[in-house]
Amino acid sequence: MSATTTLRQSWIIMLRDLKHWQREPWTPLFGIAFTIMLVLVFGYLFGGSIVLPGGGDYLDYLMPGMFALAMMFGLEGTMTAIANDSKRGVTQRFRSLPISSVAVPLGRAGADLANSTVELLVLVGGGLVIGWRAGGSWSESLLAVALLLWLRFALLWVGILLGLVLRGEGGVMAVQVLVWPLGFLSNVFVSPEDMPAWLGTVAQWNPVSATAAACRDLFGNPTGITTGPLAEHATTVALVWPLVIAAVFVPLSARAYRRLSG
Fold this sequence. Notes:
Layout: H1 3-23, H2 26-46, H3 58-70, H4 75-87, H5 90-95, H6 103-129, H7 138-165, H8 170-184, H9 197-204, H10 207-219, H11 229-258
Helix pairs in contact: 1-6, 2-3, 2-6, 3-10, 4-7, 4-8, 6-7, 7-10, 7-11, 10-11
């Protein structure tokens, strides 16, 4: 089956999933509200006591990190939707049609990515309202947004795979167990240079840290990093990490979809 045909099939599936978002908008709205709450807590309650390596305003440091962290939230929604389709027999009906094995999960990923784009734009607008500013050029800012969505796209396939494999209630817990340590063991809230050496090294190699550091640099915000791989190569690392994740989980998701027994 040609790539064009697969993309056309994925587009149809994506439109179907977007209609579900329109009918049930509460999940993304709660996700946005939770992220804004974290910004207010860390930006206004704790931010005054945090001094960044290399200097700079903490709110300007925090916001790009929160954009990256927001790309982690909501993966359990994708996993749950995939699992529910499987349990209700929707997936089996799709499999009975002459369509690509990757079209259905790709359509789901596309719908989630469209929703994530709207959420990200709302968060950027909220950041501007409370005083955050991007000092980079328009092209650099657009590249930062593209890197955020690139990370989201790659992580979606982790949720899709878990939705296909873990179709019970425990699957949601599995995603949350993955999201919280990965999201918080990063440079989102504090610089890795302020952590113990071994913990800072782990945080520096976190995919979320790479995207957050690259976005801070592209937005013209303080990075909080003076040494290490993210000091000079954050954008490259932020491009490579999601590529590696997608290269692993896209084939695994397609394979799990083909082997689905209902």
